[in-house]
Amino acid sequence: MRELGIILTMAAVTALLRFLPFIVFRKYTPPYIKYLGRVLPPALIGMLVIYCFKDVRFSTAPHGLPELISALCIVGLQVWKRSSLVSILGGTAIYMLLVQVVF
Amino acid sequence: MKKQVIRLAFKTSIPVLAGYIVLGMGFGLLLHNAGYGPGWALLMSVIIYAGTMQYVGVGLLAGAASILTTALTTLMVQARHLFYSISLIEKYKGMGKYKPYMIFGITDETYSLMSDPYIPVDKKDEPLYRFLVTLFNHCYWITGCVLGNLLGEVLPFSTDGLEFSMTALFVASFTEQWITMRDHVPALTGFVSTLVCLLVFGPERFLIPALLLMTLILTLLRRREEAQA
């Protein structure tokens, strides 16, 4: 029962956070919120990129090199091919090769 | 017609497939080691459906956390969802019967796909398309969580590094939005604010300061924009 309580609480609070903005602004979206809706996506994706690197240790070997090299390859592939699928599969394959074989 | 939408939605969701199976399996295994079977993995992945939170949740379960601690921890870990939802209010208008599930199904990864200004289908098929992408991602996550819990330690091949596909998804989305958008100030604001907060607050508690800082900067920039106009 205690477990069920913990799990239901996590589910309820997470759902609340997801639904709250939609409920509060269901009739009218103020210009300020519309503005945030326009500028937040690139800012949040930028945040997620940093978030993925939070546990990478740059001070000890291999100094985050597998992550940095792979990330640069993904940027390059995306600029070149403009296909997220190609960039993601390519970048992940390069990273797996680097951590399993090279470093 | 419908088939085409299903195909395109599946194609959009493929980048999440590998990542969710691997991260889900990681969670399933962790839950297995904490003494909880596949039923618990299924329940959590279906009704919570949030990667980081479920990992944190294993700790809460194992440590017999109180309901209040659980609620506050969830609030802190998941605060970014407020921001995802705020930025999807306009995009999710007119989604009809699919809308509640689509809101429930917003995750870091689904958000990254949904915030893409480009949609590969006609306007009339957009609700179904967005619904299916959300549903497919949810299915991958559930599959991964349950599979990891069932398999325990036995894995057929080395998946070391496969979890990088999530990083890859965000880096590719960031690059694509950078190419598409003329104004790079929001992207830089989010990137730099988070980097600064990571360095100042450390890897455990930088997300909320980062969210507040970037919102503050973007708000100040709007005032300036208006003053100039």
Characterization of this structure:
The complex is a heterodimer of chains A (103) and B (229). With 103 residues, chain A is an all-alpha fold. Chain A has helices at 2-24, 31-52, 65-81, 84-102. Chain A has a domain at 56-103. Chain A contains four helices and no strands. The longest helix of chain A is centred in the N-terminal third of the chain and has 23 residues, at 2-24. Chain A is extended and about 55 Å long. Chain B is 74% helix and 0% strand. Chain B contains eleven helices and no strands. Chain B has helices spanning 2-33, 38-47, 51-62, 67-78, 80-88, 99-104, 108-114, 126-151, 164-180, 185-201, 207-228. The mean pLDDT of chain B is 89. The chains are: A mainly alpha (103), B mainly alpha (229). Chains A and B meet through helix 1, helix 2, helix 3 and helix 4 of A and helix 1, helix 2, helix 3, helix 4 and helix 5 of B.
